[in-house]
């Protein structure tokens, strides 16, 4: 099972993605956030393999990645 975490500030988009990913049995949405602060607060306690992230989300500086992601990946 591949666990997904959705991050986007548009509620309707997150709902659509959640619906889309309900049907493949090998995918499971385990968390959602509407901004970078919510993502970073929830990520340590929400095991996931994939973070589907809007790159223009508030609270995350790009290019690059936040140090919290490095801790999760390593």
UniProtKB/TrEMBL annotation:
Residues 3-74 form the Response regulatory domain. Keywords: Phosphoprotein. The modification 4-aspartylphosphate is found at residue 54. It comes from the Bacteria. The keyword Phosphoprotein applies. Gene3D superfamilies: 3.40.50.2300. Pfam families: Response_reg (PF00072). This is Response regulator transcription factor. It comes from Hymenobacter bucti.
């Amino acid at each position: 099972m591949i666990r997904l975490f959705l991050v986007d500030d548009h509620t309707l988009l997150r709902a659509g993605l959640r619906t889309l990913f309900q049907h493949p049995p090998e995918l499971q949405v385990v968390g959602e956030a509407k901004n970078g602060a919510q993502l970073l607060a929830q990520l340590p306690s929400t095991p996931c393999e994939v973070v589907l992230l809007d790159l223009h989300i508030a609270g995350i500086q790009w290019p690059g990645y936040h140090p919290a992601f490095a801790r999760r990946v390593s």
